[in-house]
Amino acid sequence: MKIAGMILILAGVAAFLYGGFSYTSNKKVVDMGPMQMSVAENHSVPIPPILGIAAVLAGGALVYLGMKKA
After folding, report:
1. Res 37: pLDDT
2. How far is CA 51 from CA 10, 21, 29, 56, 70, in A?
3. What is the pLDDT of residue 68?
4. Beta strand extents in 1-70 (DSSP E only)
5. Which is more confidently placed, 69 or 39?
6. CB atoms within 10 A of CB 45
């Protein structure tokens, strides 16, 4: 449980600091025989700060409960 809690804490801090992530997808626009054209589209996925805080709190609870049992 301690390892899962630490991973949650790190993920929560990263989500809080970065605020989201972005990725690029390629979309085929024209396909006329040997001629093909594609467009690269950038997408961003925001992560609300409350989710980062919740992950840190849940991870802290898992670490605390893991230390209590040991």
Report:
1. 93
2. 13, 14, 36, 9, 29
3. 76
4. 20-32, 35-46
5. 39
6. 8
Torsions phi, psi of 24, nearest 5?
A: -115, 135
Q: Which two tokens stand for residue 66?
A: 């893991």
End-to-end CA distance of the chain: 11
Structure token digits, residue 11: 């993920």
Q: Where are the domains of the chain?
A: 2-69
Are 38 and 31 a contacting pair, CB within 8 Å? no
Write the DSSP symbol of residue 24.
Answer: E
Predicted confidence band at 55 (pLDDT cuts at 50, 70, 90)? very high
> Whole-model pTM?
0.71
Q: In whole angstroms, give the CA distance from residue 20 to residue 18.
A: 6
Number of residues that make up the chain: 70
